[in-house]
Amino acid sequence: MDNVVLLLVYALVLGIGATIFMDIYAVLNKKLFNISSLDYALVGRWIGSFPKGVFSHPNIMQATPVKYERAIGWIAHYSIGITFAFVLLILYGLEWASVPTLWPALIIGIATTVFPFFMMQPAFGFGISGAKTPKPMTVRIRSLLTHTIFGIGLYVAGLILSMIIR
């Protein structure tokens, strides 16, 4: 199979697998500790506002809802996971999928925390790294932990993929 096709297929499998892993973590957090995760409808509201030229909000929760925002948000959530898996494979090579190791996956997972800290949270009106939220340190720790879990999910998905491709 062509390397470009392999890259795309592996990125799809790894990204979807890691995102599912992260979502399972979020469900367990809610069920066991009553800790809610990000409502992806807010992501959809943010993205759905782009065609109107609106890229940031004073408070995304008070912004006018957008048609299909929940679906847009969930599609974006999984697309972003696939994109980060693609980056992992570009940086560490297709060979990583054959013999996955934890550190590259963790590095990618932790590095992706840059996006909520410096792009999404400010655009949602929450400030850089959640500085304008009632508990900024809690927001930061939860974001870092969630993205670390995503990195572990990349590794677990990599282990499963490596068993399939052998």
UniProtKB/TrEMBL annotation:
A Pfam family annotated for this UniProt entry: DUF2938
UniProt KW Membrane keyword: yes
Coiled coil: none
UniProt entry keywords in alphabetical sequence: Membrane, Transmembrane, Transmembrane helix
Transmembrane intervals: 6-28, 71-94, 106-131, 143-165
Protein name as it appears in the record: DUF2938 domain-containing protein
